[in-house]
Amino acid sequence: MRETRLWSLHILVIPIILVLLGAHFALMHYAPIFYALSVEKAREFSTMIARGKNIGQFVVYILLLAAGLYHGLYGTRGILRELPWSPALAKLIDLGILIFGIAIFALGVYVTWWTFNFELGG
Amino acid sequence: MLVAKTITFRIRRFDPETDSAPHWDSYAVNVFEGMTVLEALHQIKAEQEPSLAWRSSCRMGVCGSCGMFVNQFPQLACQTQVLHLEADIVSVEPLPNYPNVKDLVPDLQPLVEKHAEVKPYIIHPDLKEMREPSGEFLQTPAEREAFSQFTYCIKCGVCLAACPTAATDPAFLGPQALTQAYRYSADNRDSGVHSRRDSVGAFHGAYQCHMAGACSHACPKGVDPALAIQLLKRALVLDNFGFGKKESQSAKVAPLADVVKELEEFAPPPRTAE
After folding, report:
1. Does residue A55 lie in a domain region?
2. Which end of chain A is more exposed for a tag (fewer CB within 10 A), N or C?
3. Would you state the pLDDT for residue B177?
4. Contact (CB, 8 A) for B67 and B45
């Protein structure tokens, strides 16, 4: 059943988000500790770009983007669909959320990919 | 009986034949200790307002007819003592989340329809045995305990009135129907989760429950529908991924002779004349 699969996936991504959020904190907010850098050095543009070119970070952010978007948009759909829409409008909401999600995911992938390929002074 | 207090009852009135919208009327009632909201309504009807309408029957919390919105909380009028409300003004309205027939009478048709939709009966793979039983479906105390509390539902509809999701989503099956879906799905004689999933596994089914818990708080029989719905979600997910209860796991028939023999073994020894 479609709804069972959608709901199961929304529950399944919760631990994935938690793990990836941990990775995000380690890579971004605790970068000085994680990479053993001074706070000033960790904040430098060149350091951030260097981090962005790390394949591990690239994968973490693509996965976090996918998992977070799915979980968030599934919840948004649940809230919106709770209102008494006509079946046609309910389908339109589903479609709108799907298109929005794909668009935001594509944008996120593009930005992450752009950072991954950015050349300093290039 | 000693009068303990004079309480004002604010009752929401509506007669579809004469009123275009509901309005409120107030009645002063001399309340005695132990007097229920239902008894107060009877007194108002007998002494002040003969046209006041509500639905009730057993007066003892068994039939589930007198669900009302008393002081902004859905409950059975026959189980609610006026003085326990600790208020000088008691408001009484028909149950929310239902159409209003007249005064305090809700139209429980949505409840009945949603209940029927979840196939609230045992679905056993052996149809022949269901129709022409040759013996007993045995059930251990532990197997009974798995769904025991959910059998106490009296179909009063109070849980659906308390449900915030049902307030915004009229198509939501609601706690009563979903609890009954679980009650039967958890029964070891039943293998019907799969055939119930079209209704309970749809968008307006179990997954729409946000677990506010208001249903469990309001249930006058102590049933925990919020728990039943979460267990139902688990059963649906397991069924969907092929880990659910198999038809072969449904209760087997024990020949009547075996049942009698077992009963005899557990029966107390016959009394002997002294």
Report:
1. yes
2. C
3. 98
4. no
